[in-house]
Design brief:
Elements (H helix, E strand, L loop, with lengths): L17 E2 L14 H8 L5 E2 L8 E5 L2 E5 L14 H14 L1 H10 L5 H7 L2 E2 L13 H12 L11 H10 L3 E5 L37 H6 L2 H10 L8 H11 L3 E6 L5 H5 L6 E3 L2 E8 L5 E3 L4 H5 L7 H11 L7 E3 L5 E3 L11 E2 L6 E5 L8 H14 L2 E5 L5 E2 L4 H4 L6 E5 L10 E4 L2 H12 L14 E6 L2 E9 L3
Parallel strand pairs: 6-7, 6-15, 7-8, 15-17, 17-18, 18-20
Antiparallel strand pairs: 1-16, 2-3, 3-4, 4-5, 9-10, 9-14, 11-12, 11-13, 19-20
Helix pairs in contact: 1-5, 2-3, 4-5, 6-15
């Protein structure tokens, strides 16, 4: 999954929240070979298509889907690069640059474009089967541009000991979190294939389950959102061990900022201070009337949400009730231009021409697709944290929603980055991947660091097995012994 590039001249983190769908296909200013120029010119033939449920990147060419997949998903493809070849080609690209790389491979015909596509994670599309090798040039150009723009992995960080050392020595840690840190509390994430929230929304009749969080859909029919809101609403003042880990970093003076994509406000339950946290997508902590901007604490509308009702604005209701006591106050004449006139201006009008006032809907202050993120997100990240951060830990997120997904790429490339989640991502090269349940991973890291992470969900005698992933020196899987 790659990042949706911001329009030229715009701050890449000052864009509305969107699902990440496409790769950056911008051509470089310099091209030294005809083959590269030809390939890059072909990029204009490709558009974007929506992200698929398995988390692979996708492009579209006149309805044909082109996917980017993980290395291990290409190992059984006939003629594909081996993992070792793929790593070598990627390293070579970063070492010598795009033009020289194409000269050395395509122009000198040391490898076919078709095979080279697999080195960069392209799943060879069926519609090109049997086509001449030149037909793969557009795909290869996309893949080369995509790979070259990626932050390269820092080779000196690979082991569990490296991760623990980074944790202990860091003084300004950015923690970027997603829904995966709350699933152990019974709050579903969004994209898990069978258990995620999006997998359970077929009954709503949406063309795309993400529409439940689309601001335009909400304005047209808020009942769609409120029919599922109760499923993601935190019901108790509890928090997971991973939330406790973030609080522990804060207590040790190491937490620079927790950028959370979660809207459940559970970080506050754990004691993470507001000044150390940016709620990138807002939260249920407050709600605002869409008509009059009246704001209330989130728990004022929780009962309605739990019952699947649309919460109404009490301030609007009070004004309506007060107007109803006034002469001719309840109903107002509709004019053709949308303005309202008093009933007495036209006594002959039909009853249907009158508008009965209704209260506004109380919208939780979460950021929907199509809405801008809080100004604090971009200003703090770019104007403050980018200069201070000495470690980045990404936990429980597949990094599929821009602009938050762009955070790892915005930071200096020499700042180490650790990824903690159940499955790896293919579009960002983290220095160390720690795979497994977030709670298990962070509790084991704390044990090895000599830190006392206490939480009732962590068994006192818990033993964790750490297994390497074949072919990946820096990728490790955490499992609880006996689980």
């Amino acid at each position: 999954m790659d990042l949706v590039p911001a329009p030229r001249g715009e701050n890449p983190v000052k864009t509305p929240m969107v699902e990440v769908e496409a790769v950056d296909v911008a051509a470089p200013a310099n091209t030294e070979t005809g083959a590269l120029q030809e390939a890059l010119e072909a990029l204009s033939d490709f558009g974007t298509d929506s992200d698929n449920s398995d988390g692979d990147d996708a492009l579209s060419d006149d309805g044909d889907i082109i996917q980017f997949v993980r290395d291990d998903q290409l190992q059984d493809v006939p003629g594909a690069c081996t993992r070792e070849e793929a790593v070598a080609y990627r390293k070579r690209l970063h070492d010598i640059g795009k033009a020289a790389f194409v000269e050395e491979t395509l122009v000198q015909e040391t490898v076919t474009a078709k095979k080279l596509c697999t080195a960069f994670g392209i799943k060879l599309p069926d519609f090109l089967e049997g086509a001449p090798d030149e037909a793969y040039h557009p795909l290869l150009a996309i893949a080369i541009s995509r790979e070259f723009s990626r932050r390269p992995k820092l080779p000196q960080y690979n082991s569990i000991d490296d991760a623990v050392k980074l944790l202990k020595e860091a003084k300004n840690i950015i923690v970027l979190t997603g829904a995966g840190i709350s699933t152990s509390l019974g709050i579903p994430d969004f994209r898990s294939k069978d258990t995620g929230l999006y997998s359970k929304l077929a009954h709503l009749g949406l063309s795309d389950p993400q529409e439940v969080f689309d601001i335009h859909v909400f304005r047209e029919d808020p009942s769609i959102f409120f029919s599922i809101a109760k499923d993601i609403l935190p019901t108790e003042k509890k928090f997971s061990p991973t939330h406790g880990f973030i609080k522990l970093l804060q207590d040790q003076g190491k937490l620079l900022t927790n950028y959370t994509q979660n809207i459940d406000n559970i970080e506050a339950n754990a004691g993470v201070l507001a000044e150390n946290m940016v709620q990138c997508h807002g939260s249920f902590a407050t709600a605002t009337c869409v008509k009059c901007d009246f704001k209330v604490a989130g728990d004022a509308i929780f009962n309605d949400i739990k019952e699947g009702k649309i919460p109404e604005c009490s301030a609007c209701r009070q004004r309506i009730d007060e107007d109803a006591l006034k002469p001719q106050g309840l109903k107002r004449k509709r004019s053709s231009n949308g303005n309202q006139k008093d009933r007495k201006d036209d006594e002959s009008s039909d009853e249907d021409d009158y508008d009965i006032p209704t209260p506004g809907v109380m919208k939780p202050d979460i950021t929907f697709f199509g809405e801008d993120l809080p100004d604090e997100f971009g200003s703090r990240l770019v104007g403050h944290d980018r200069q201070l951060a000495d470690l980045v830990i990404v936990i429980g997120t597949s990094l599929k929603v821009a602009p938050v997904a762009e955070v790892p790429g915005v930071l200096p490339r020499d700042v180490p980055q650790i990824y903690i989640s159940r499955t790896p991502v293919s579009h960002t090269d983290f220095d160390i991947d720690l795979l497994g349940d977030c709670d298990v991973v962070v509790s084991e890291l704390c044990r090895r660091a000599g830190w006392n992470l206490q939480h009732p969900m962590i068994p006192p005698d818990e033993q964790v097995k750490i297994s390497p992933v074949e072919g990946y020196e820096s990728r490790h899987v955490f499992t609880v012994v006996g689980a």
